[in-house]
Every structure is written in C-alpha cells, then in structure tokens.
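Q: A reviewer asked whether we had any structural model of the full assembly, not just the individual parts. We don't, so I'm hoping you can provide one. Inputs are below.
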Amino acid sequence: MRRRGLGIILFLLFVISGCCPVSVDSKPSISVWHWMTDRDPAFQELAKKYEALTGVKVNFELYAPSDAYSQKIRAAAQGTNLPDVFGILGEKRDFASFIKAGHILDITSYMEANNSNWKNNFFPKALAVNEFGPGNSYGIKPGIFGVPIDIMTIQMVYNKKLFEQLGLNPNRPPKTLQEFLDIGVKIRAAGMQGLVSGWGEVWMIDCLANNYAFNIMGKDKVLATIRGEVAYTDPDWVKVFSIFKRMQDSGVLAKGLVTMINKSAEQIFANEKAVFAFNGSWCVNVYKGMNPSLEYGAMLPPAASSQYPMAIWGGAGSSFMVNARSKNKEEVVKFLIWLTDQDQQAYLAQATNNLPANKNSLTKIPEILAQFARGMDYATHPNVWGVSEFSLVIEAFDRGIQSIIIGEKSPEQVASDVQKIKEREMAKKRAK
Amino acid sequence: MKHAFYYKSKKVAINTLIHIFLLSVSVTCLYPLLWMIVSSLKTQDMIFKDISLIPHQFRLENYVLAWKEGGFGRNFFNSIIYTVSVVFGIVIISSMAAYAFSRLKFMGSKFLFIMFMAAMMIPIPGSFVALYVLLNKLHLRNTPIGYILCMINVGLSTSIFLLKTFFDKMPKELEDAARIDGCSKIGIWWHVALPLAKPVLAVVVVFNALAVWNEYILALIIFDNRQFMPLQVALQTFQGEFVTNYPLLMAGLTITALPIIIVYLLMQKYIVKGVTQGAVVG
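A: Here is a predicted structure for the entire assembly that you could use as a starting point for your response.
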C-alpha cells in the first residue's frame, strides 16, 4: 500500500513538474534548434562564451536525427512555435515555402550594413545557397535569408603512404586526367585498389560527371543542355561519358565501385586499402574516427581539359535562419554575426572538423581542412544553377555511367539513351 | 530390425535438419546483439579495423561515458515513467473498450469498432503534425501528460483488437455465474474477464512497452525541453549526420535494451501462452 502511494506521488510530481510554467528570466535569451549532433558540444561551448561576453543566454537544442528534426520544424511552423534560430533541411523549394509562409527573416539589410562587412566574411558560394536572386522561379523577393555556419566541398583524397609505395611524390597529386590514368596503370600493376566512392548511391557519380562536364564544355553549355538547347549526344557529352570508360580501362577504379555505398568506401580508404577516394569534406571527421593515423591529402578531380576550369560541388554545409516572428530579432542577428566571426568559425572548424563558412578563418585551421576549403573557389551546386534536370534523365545518366564502367554499354550508347529520355520528358512537359 | 533402424535414422536426420535450421535462426537473431555488446567494448577505430568478436581490450568505461555524455539518468527515469503510464493506460482503456465491444450491445458499437480498426491503418508518422497542432491548442505540447496521452492513443487500436478477439471466445456462462453471485458489469470485467485475459494482457503489455520504450520521433516533435525526453532520444546524441560514435552508441543501446529484455523474460510464459491461444491474430 505504502509502495503504491509512493509511486503515485512520484508520478504526480513528475507530471506537475512537467506542467509548471518555465521561470521567467530578465536576461534576454535566444533559442536555437539544430540537428548537428557532432557540432553540439562546440555550440554549447560557444553559447557559454557568448553569455559570459554579453549576458545573453543562448540555448542550443539538439534534435537528431535529421529526418525527425525536419518533421519537428514543419510541425512547429504549423503551430507558429518556431525558435529564434533554426535550420531547414531539404531542397530550395522547401526553404522558399518557409519564406513565403513568413517564417524566415530577410537578413539582406544586416548583411549589407557597414559596407557589407558581414557579407564579405563569407565564401560567396556559401551565401549563394541562402540567397534568392532577381526573377527566381520560386517567386521570392530577392535577398539573403540564411547564414551559413559551415561549408562543404566534394573532392578527391589520396593516400600519401600508398603514393610512396607506388613511387609517386606524396606531395604532388595528379593534376591532369592523363596523370591520373597513368597512376591507374601503376595501381593495377601493384595489385592495389584505386578510387573508391559511394557510387552505389548514384548521386556521387552524377557529381563527378558534372564536374567533368563543366571542365570540358563550361557552365553555359551544361546549363543549355539542361534547358534542352544542347543534346546529350553532343561530342562534349560523349567525352564526359568516355572519361569513365578510360578510368575503368586504366585500372584507376576500385573493383565493385558501382555498387559501393559511401560508408564502405570510407572504411576501405581509412583502412589504407585504396589509393584514392571521391568524397565530401565531411570525410575528414569520418577518417579521423576510423583511423586517426591516416595520412592523406585532398585534391581537385584531375582536369580532363584546360579549356574551362575544373568544377566541384560545394556550398553551404549547414545554415541558420532567423525566425521572422522572433521577439529578439536584433539580439539574434548580433549573435549570428558573432558566431560567424573569424575566431568562432576557426574554433568550430577545429572542434568539429567541418569547413568554416568564414573565408578569413582558413589560416587558423588544420591543413587538410584548408585544402578542402580552398576548393570553394571551384565550387558549384545544382541548387544555384537556377535550372534543374528531369529526375528520369538524371537516373538514366547515372545508371548509364554505371553500365559504362561494368562494360555493358559504350559512351555513345549511353549518350543516345539519355537523350531519348530527355526528349520524351521535354515532350511531356510541353504537352502539359 | 532394418525397419527400426530406417525410422530411427530418418528421425535423427529430420531432427538434425530442424535443429540446424533453428540454430541458424538463433544465430541470425543473436549475432546483432552479440556484435552490439562486443562493439560497446571497443574503441572507434578498432570497430573498423578489428572484426573479431573478442576485443583485445575491454573498454568498460564506454558504458560510463555513454551514461554521462548521453545524459541517460534523467532520460532513463522519463522512459520508465512513460512506459509504465502508457502501458497502464492502454491496459485499462483497451480492456474496458474491448469488453464493451464484445459483450455490450449499444448503438453504433460496430461503427465505433471499425473506426478503431481503421486507425490501425494510418501510419503513425502521418499523424505527427496533426497531433502537434492538437496538443498545441490544448496547451499540452511540451508536457509529459500530452506525450503520455498521445502514446496511449497510438497503442489503443491494436490492443482493443487483440482483447476483443479473446473476449469474443470467452464462455458466457462464466459471466452468468458471476452475475448470479451479484457482480456488476464493472465487477465482471474486473473479477472475471481481466484475470482470464492474462496471457493476452501480457502480449498487450510487452508489445506496447516495446513501442513506448523505443519511441523517440513523437517525443522529439512534442518536447522542446530536453529534460522531458525519453531514453531513445539520448541515444541519438551519438549518431551524427556523417559520423557515428559506435562504441558509445552500442554501449547506450545495450543499456537501453536491458530493461526491455528483463520485461520480456519476466512475461515470457504468458506471452507464449497468449500467442498459442491465438491472441495474436493476423
């Protein structure tokens, strides 16, 4: 009887404590919702620093995993319970829908105040993801609506020890496709594994193929292809497809690459069983966990042509948005300016192994991160192109490259197949 | 003699095949658990380098770290309160409702039952935003009571279905005897129906306890305050977007799995009975 009573008292205390209103603090406070588990301890540390500096309490609330976080943000938007600062995961059209619903503050005026001091701190391409230009297809008033916290680039990495074993200079990665293919011959002769990547998750093939498309024919022609003005059977596109055949023939691609998931690729590279990997800058953190003594360097994909610069995918990794209905807008913006300042960005990069969004922080971060960050000069991303390819065309494109690698189809055949699907999709669109 | 040998050999062969099959099923069930426990005793890089099932070094401190870094103390207490309250609520409400659907004749009972069954078809994540908005309007969002009510709601349909199936098969003579002894309808439910339904109730308890213990998405959506979060949310601390802290995650999972394994072992006898009596239908 006594035990039951104690249980009831405990339960009531629990429920009542849960229903009590939170005590009101006279100091201003900022609430931030995020999903970045690996960055949470660093955020908490920065929040402490900021409170000590200004007296403003910042509550970083972590809600992971990211898909649950996305649901929470959507639900909170429906109930107008969004915090002062939050991030949006998803495509640009999701971002636009939040702006249209009046949930996100236009921060252009803050960015451009004092001769664009704040804006100029960022890599321009990191800001582009949070920017809506004039005449954008989403119908959003032009402006900047988010603050990049960090950036990411997708590049190649190479194992320095294996480079030495192959008789190569570990400080001189291949710069041209031919040099890369020549290394492939050496890799095959030595019985090693060449390039590993998550090409089973086809978007990574798409990424590398687009890198080479930009390098061979330039941005304008790539975008013209997406608009339907240039055919995929154009000789330049056949050259792009042929690169994968040449890579396969040279032996520079690892066995089983077309079905490899990125986690396996990361494990193989971290265990020093592959010479190259094609991966995003997040890999620095991953490799550190898997093999802290791994010696490797980052490099741009070796160029196939000197006509146009090599391009890589990159941009803002994570961004924060200011709640347009926040009562503390000014305080929030001040905090975000502080958070994205050089020192805080360098601290975040060192503590979390992510690339800083502030371009002035590069001198204060580890070399491997700086190598990835320097790639931002070559960065592009489908989100900022303003046009998007049909998903069926992308699928045919990526699957086609897979079939080239396994020797099922020739580059010409794939180009022709992709073009057929493109024409069919365009006809459907015109008919609508 | 030859005949006996033939039948004996046949029996042995069949038994061997059955045992090989059962052993392979057991291995596939137990291996992930074993891997979880072994990985919880390794370092992060050893998990990727050393695939052996016996680690070179036993890092028991992973458990302490997981408990501290995940903030398991408060979350563990929360999960126990949520599981006990929700299961208690489901058992009381669903058994009453199932008994009523099975034995009482009232207008619209069939329609109401169909409505409950239809609720089983709605995928839970599909109702999250609606639940959020409802709780917000009732000022129950970010409160434990709001979460408990939602979870009771989530578990009701299946439990009512299981219990009604059992009550439908229960002999009416037992109730008549209780009625002659002066039992009211509530009395019959409490003194006759519930004790007889013990095996089914065990199934209801274990299924719902598992569901509440492992739930975290609804909790993440409803709660803003970390102090109300259940244990499963704490586990997510170790799982990043690109990087997962496997040793601490596995240690956390082992800690999390223990209570539910204990509940299962305690109620195993009833569950087997419940299942063999046809409590779990369809």
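A: Points you may want to mention in the reply: The mean pLDDT of chain B is 88. The interface with chain A takes residues 44-45, 48-49, 81, 85, 125, 128-129, 132-133, 136, 141, 143-145, 216-217, 220-221, 224-226, 228, 236-243, 245 of chain B (CB under 8 Å).
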